Automatic annotation (TrEMBL):
Reactions it catalyzes: dTMP + ATP = dTDP + ADP
Gene3D superfamilies, sorted: P-loop containing nucleotide triphosphate hydrolases (3.40.50.300)
Stated name of the protein: Thymidylate kinase
SUPFAM superfamilies in the cross-refs: P-loop containing nucleoside triphosphate hydrolases
Family statement drawn from the similarity comment of this UniProt entry: Belongs to the thymidylate kinase family.
Stored InterPro entries: P-loop_NTPase, Thymidylate_kin-like_dom, Thymidylate_kin_CS, Thymidylate_kinase
Superkingdom as given in the UniProt entry: Bacteria
PANTHER family: THYMIDYLATE KINASE (PTHR10344), UMP-CMP KINASE 2, MITOCHONDRIAL (PTHR10344:SF4)
Alphabetized HAMAP family for the sequence: Thymidylate_kinase (MF_00165)
Enzyme Commission designation: 2.7.4.9
EC class (word): transferase
One Gene Ontology CC term in the entry: cytosol
Length: 219
């Protein structure tokens, strides 16, 4: 299975991923976890990250340009990702193509039915043929809470300096709204909405034993 975790910056995706991986490993499953963008591994991801810190001229101002950089990161990883899915019980990803769709739409003040969301879908899943997730998890956390976590993380770790997306509270709220609409529409594949207090052991079992074919909200 390929399972992805989505959510705004600071939502707690890494914590959720760790809890799910621990639960699956304890049950005897082979699990591999990775995240996108692949900073430090992908030239495209690193260029995008540098642009978000003010480098590379006006690259960061181009919504489609930045989305293409993030998409190319996944394109470069697609072959290895397919191989890992075939050899591993579960591959869990922290962010995937839905992040590109949600943030791009939010930057353009478009809805989940807008042109850029369709463009991301066509580019990543059709032209680049990246693997389609079996389930996409939306970690639904209040934007103000997520922003406070991101700020605290930056204060505790000098290497986790927030980029221009993370510093824009209005962008984060618009992104959260697009995410909710993508989940409601089961964009690309089935979605499941969870909150920060979700029981990861229970969720891990549910995802493996009965993947959803429609949006579910897990308290």
């Amino acid at each position: 299975m390929l399972i992805t975790i989505e959510g705004v910056d600071g939502a707690g995706k890494h914590t959720l991923a760790r809890g799910l991986c621990d639960a699956w490993t304890d049950s005897g499953l082979e699990v591999l976890s990775m995240g996108f963008p692949r900073y430090g591994e992908s030239m495209h991801a690193d260029l995008a990250a540098e642009a978000l810190q003010g480098e590379h001229g006006d690259l960061a101002s181009s919504v489609y340009g930045m989305a293409a950089m993030f998409a190319l990161d996944r394109h470069d990883a697609a072959r290895d990702l397919r191989r890992l899915i075939n050899r591993t019980d579960i591959v869990l990803l922290d962010r995937y193509a839905a992040s590109n769709a949600a943030y791009s739409a939010a930057r353009l003040h478009e809805s989940a039915q807008g042109k850029v969301v369709e463009w991301v879908k066509a580019l990543e899943f059709e032209r680049f043929a990246i693997p389609v997730p079996d389930v996409q998890l939306l970690l639904n956390i209040p934007v103000a809470v997520a922003a406070a976590r991101a700020k605290s993380r930056e204060q505790l770790d000098a290497t986790r300096r927030r980029d221009s997306y993370e510093l824009d509270g209005d962008l984060q709220q618009r992104t959260a709204d697009v995410y909710s609409a993508l989940a409601a529409a089961n964009w690309v594949s089935p979605w499941r909405v969870v909150d920060g207090d979700v029981d990861t052991t229970q969720l891990a079992a549910q995802l493996v034993n009965k993947p959803s074919d429609q949006v579910e909200v897990t308290p």
